[in-house]
Amino acid sequence: MSLPISSIDVLIVGTGPAGSSTALHLLQQDPAWAGRIIMVDKAVHPREKLCGGGITHLGENVLTRLGLPFEPTNFPVREVRLVYQNESYSFRGNPAFRIVHRAQFDHWLVEQVIGRGVDVHQGETLLEVTPHETHVEVVTDKAIYHAKVLVAADGSRSRIRAKLKWDDDSRVARLIEVLTPESPHAWEFRDGVAIFDFSQMTGAGLQGYYWDFPSIVGGTLQMNRGVFDSRARPERPKADLKETLREALAERERNLDDYTIKGHPIRWFDKNGRFSQPRILLEGDAAGADPLFGEGISFALGYGLVAAQTVQHAFASGDFSMADYRQRIIRDPLLRSLPTRVWFAKFAYLMKYPWFVRWGWRMARRIIGWTRWRDAAYDVGPVRGREVVERPSYVPNKPLPLLPAPTTHFGGGQRLDGEDRDG
């Protein structure tokens, strides 16, 4: 059976935040783009996407400029507490950032794209990519596309990157996480606190941190708990993420065996890496994300703006070389912070002397005391749309239903080095 052939101006592979942001930014420039874009994804929304779910004011500002009220259910974090052994310091804000459930958030974004007339093909798997002088041929299990521009937004384990056989020396950070049902009276929910615990950085060889993110999943309060390993120094032995997570949960009176453990990777941003070739752009996690805190959503939304600007310029000028894409990334007000975060990750996660780390924590606490981040009322960005939890001290009169503890156990079939679900 022969596959149908479709000619299209822009084919976006991947319907996560980066891909949807690209489409929405093109549509903002000209609604006529709706008939010139096709989006393809192997998944069907709403689909699970492993992620801590944090969106800072950087990402929220992108949505605001797109004219999108923040409608997805979210938990507003009022205090971000960074811990190292017996030292800690905090960032505060109203909110400092928001935590979403990626299945709902990504689905909402895709609905915004579909509602503006873009053809989105879900449940369609990419098979082959062949660049030509006048177009890029993309073969899926359902169709053949001849696209004037291909935007690869298909995640850290980008199949498009692999099919193009690009040389790739970029580092990949590792993450594992679990969701634990919680009481609405738990202090993290009551006070709106997210925890980044770096205590294992000098003991267990972890080049990263443990996190506790209060979140709302399917109308229930759950704690997103996980471990981030940046692999800032890849020649060092890998930390045992499962055991690190087990120990952290035990300190919080939780047993890892009671929960489903999942993992996923984050590709490091590399300003000298490859982001494009004629008629093809990489964006989001496929291009590279933040290796310091693993912040992905905000930067993915930012990539969408830069990719849309590059696509718009290509069609306006007739120059499809995409040669200026790297410089557009480096100059972008949001994305230009990525090289700085790379530098800080290489510095921070190579510390191995506890006394020096504790000194750094004390200095950070003093510095924060001189900034607006010390003020819980500090509004770091637009506060739009509805929230399930209006204030950190809010306890619902009618508690949200709690899920029973999952009985699925971690088994030999799970991957600790990460599993990517985009694209």
Write a structural description.
The chain is an alpha/beta fold and 423 residues long. It is 26% helix and 26% strand. The protein has ten helices and 16 strands. The strands form two sheets. Strands 1, 2, 6, 7, 8, 9, 15 and 16 form an eight-stranded mixed beta sheet that branches. Helix 1 crosses helix 7 and helix 2 packs parallel to helix 7 (297-317).
Q: Could you write a compact summary of the structure shown?
A:
Helix content is 26%, strand content 26%. It has 423 residues and is α/β, with parallel strands linked by helices.
Detail the poorly predicted runs. Answer: 382-423
Largest β-sheet summary: 8 strands, mixed
CATH architecture: 3-Layer(bba) Sandwich
**CATH topological fold name:** FAD/NAD(P)-binding domain
Strand content: 25-35%
Order of helices and strands: EHEEHEEHEEEEHEHEEEHEEEHHHH
Q: What separation lies between the terminal Cα atoms?
A: 25 Å
Counting DSSP E segments of at least 2 residues, the number of strands comes to: 16
Structural class: alpha/beta
Number of helices: 10
Q: Can you tell me the overall shape?
A: globular
Question: How many distinct folded domains?
Answer: 1
Instruction: Give the full name of the CATH homologous superfamily.
Output: FAD/NAD(P)-binding domain
| Average pLDDT level | 85
Look at the structure and give the CATH class.
Alpha Beta
